[in-house]
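hey so i finally got around to running the thing on that chain from the lab meeting. sorry it took forever, my laptop kept dying and i had to restart like 3 times. anyway pasting the input first so we r on the same page abt which one it is
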Amino acid sequence: GGSASRSERLVNTQFADLADMSASEEIPVEGEITVPVGAPSPDEDFSTLDEPVRETIMRDLKAVGKKFVHVMYPKKSSALLRDWDLWGPLVLCVSLALMLQGGSADSKEDGGPQFAEVFVIIWFGAVVITLNSKLLGGTISFFQSLCVLGYCVLPLTVAMLVCRLVLLASSGTVGFVVRLLVVLAMFAWSTLASTAFLADSQPPNRKALVVYPIFLFYFVISWMILTFMPQ
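ok and heres what got predicted. didnt touch it at all, straight out
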């Protein structure tokens, strides 16, 4: 009983000393959190809040145009990965879906897939390929992969435009052969362009597992283009 009482008195004495210390001594807690700011460099990003809307739109259009050029002349470049956007893929998807629109929505004899079907196939396919790439150990981000896959639909959009023009001139065997050659060439172009941008982001021993879904993705789009017949 005596040892327990001494222990309690010792603990109470220590707490009393700490209370007196905190009451008697003032510890400064206020301060200033600052981040050192160096001299602005010429390459530093500038704010676009005070920029005219016209200049902002023109700059974005030029960026989209440069990405189209990179797709038409595919080479190993980080342009599509560094400054990714989804404006170009959206324009290409809408354009391709509109050209594949064969008739009215309630038509029973529609010669081509409806707008929503094309839209869903393109974006859902791109998302599946991107998830497959990430699961296999890809090093690029989700939206970077969507950007590349979307921009590389450009050759197939051109193929669809050529096929529409060929169908206006001839729908016979000669027209089919011309459309077949154009679609095959643009299919190969889209596949090679996308793999040129995405191949380096994959592990060397898994590149085939990434290229195969891309091949199927553009093959389905090419098949829709080749089998399209206007109403």
